[in-house]
Write a structure and sequence with these properties.
CATH topology: Rossmann fold
Radius of gyration: 18 Å
Bound molecules: adenosine-5'-triphosphate, magnesium ion
Strand order of the largest sheet: 3-4-2-5-1-6-7-8
Structural class: alpha/beta
Number of strands: 8
Length: about 270
């Protein structure tokens, strides 16, 4: 059970596509939360092809918080189905709908983070699409709930240059938190030209997932293009499924190790 934050530095390396692909193949119940502070409604307008959110999402949660309601009991009601008819529940929390909304959300992040953590007993993992890092990083209330923050990069020099500029801000933020939150990388299109191993060494950060460079497959997720036959059995989603499994197992091991340490300290 885990909360994973996906972010990016500059450009549009494919953070939304990666987090969506992982949510669609995640081995356990999962909530994909659109927490991009620069609202774009990418998942709703893209993969979900304009699905009406019926007023659900972060905006309603902000309203409820303002009125003094706890968010945890409301959170699930604010979600939409990402996929239906599977044993695993896959839900989506719609994001901001107006440009300035994130600014008014600053005091809501801690409560939202706690409501994500409260899904833990129900066996739900949360994948947060946090959008790009701003000059001040990411909201601390969001980071406080995270087990790991994954910076999405392409393997080009341009993408890596952006990551080099912004990663220290994120690392400083995480170092200031009372609990340990890991930093990892998601490499979109490894070997174009740098390999995942080279990128990992450059940033002294492990690569937690590698997404193959497949523009047409990516567009099914990012733009709601028609799914080719056997899309979910193909190499692109197959790789997502393998990455989702290894990510989930890695987080379970990390949690078990942390519990052992805490147990030993008692
Ligand atoms: N693995 C991939 N292979 C090829 N193209 C990809 C891949 N992943 C994403 N893309 C393409 O890159 C573009 C940007 O993707 P996406 O919206 O996921 O990026 P992002 O990092 O979330 O951007 P933003 O910062 O604007 O939110 C889309 O056109 C998408 O189809
Ligand atoms: Mg995005």
């Amino acid at each position: 059970m885990a909360v994973i934050v996906f972010t990016s530095a500059a450009g549009a390396p494919g953070a939304t596509t990666a987090s969506l692909g992982l949510a669609l193949t995640w081995p356990r119940h999962v909530l994909l939360a659109d927490c991009d502070r620069e609202p774009a409604q990418s998942v709703q307008a893209g993969y979900l092809r304009g699905m009406d959110h019926g007023g659900r999402g972060l905006m309603t949660l902000a309203h409820l918080h303002r009125e003094g309601h706890p968010l945890a009991p409301e959170l699930w009601r604010q979600t939409l189905p990402l996929a239906e008819g599977t044993d695993v529940q896959r839900r989506f929390l719609p994001g901001f709908t107006s440009p300035g909304a994130a600014r008014l959300f600053e005091h809501v992040w801690p409560a939202l983070g706690e409501s994500f953590e409260a899904l833990d007993p129900q066996g739900v993992d949360v994948l947060i699409d946090a959008g790009r890092l701003s000059t001040t990083g990411l909201p601390l209330g969001m980071l406080s709930a995270a087990d790991v923050v994954l910076l999405t990069v392409r393997s080009s020099l341009r993408s890596l240059a952006g990551a080099r500029i912004h990663l220290p801000t994120l690392r400083d933020q995480l170092a200031a938190l009372p609990q340990q939150v890991a930093v990892g990388l998601v490499v979109v299109g490894p070997e174009r030209p740098y390999s995942a191993a080279e990128i990992s060494a450059q940033f002294a950060a492990p690569v937690w997932a590698e997404v193959p460079w497949e523009p047409r497959s990516a567009e099914v997720l990012s733009d709601g293009e028609r799914e080719p036959r056997k899309f979910f059995e193909g190499s692109f989603m197959g790789r997502m499924r393998a990455d989702a499994k290894s990510l989930s197992e890695r987080l379970t091991r990390a949690r078990q190790a942390a519990a052992l340490v805490t147990g030993g300290a008692r």
